[in-house]
Known about the structure:
- Helix content is 25%, strand content 20%.
- Helix 3 (106-114) links the parallel strand 3 and strand 4.
- 29% of the residues are buried.
- It is of the alpha/beta class.
- The protein starts with 5 loop residues before the first strand and ends in a 7-residue tail after the last strand.
- The radius of gyration is 17 Å and the shape is globular.
Amino acid sequence: MALRLCKIDDLLRSDHLYLTEDDHCFFFREYTAYKGYDYSETNSLIKNFKKELDKKGTSQWKYKGKAINKIAEEFRESLKAEWFEEYTLVPIPPSKSKEDPLYDDRMVQMLKIFGQGLNLNIRELVLQRESTPPFHKITPRPHWEDLVDNYYIDEIIANPEPKKIILFDDLLTEGAHFKAAQHVLEKRYPGIITRGVFIARRVYADAEEI
């Protein structure tokens, strides 16, 4: 059964610190923070999708590939190709720079599988200058404005100028990476329309489950 694409509305926006009423962000699933693989299908899917490259060559690695393919399949079942005819699809950069041996192109892989046989415009327009620790390992977490200087536009593929952009990421938490990428894109392409699509948004367990 196809998943339903849900919008971050007035009731949900307070869960995501940096999003404003002008941001149009959407998600499919809910990931429960501080819970393990066994807590839910979504927790297992996201954790496997985000499995770091130092696990390559181990028995765990196959689950990452399965997660990438499952998410791409769910996107194909749930999203209509004609929705994207005017959009450029841009993955939000992972925590590692492209030059880092641990650079993880999971979102690029997923979008390419999702786009097989479709005439989609998928571009890694936003790149990261230097690697950083995964966001969940940083305390306190930086403000989105602190991330901007580490992002830049790949001018090699910057043209033709996009009409509209959808930023894709795996997990929506505070919205810092979305806002930073949005800022860099809007500076490069003044007046550009940006949207966000996430595999899941972060939620917290009910008090009795903690």
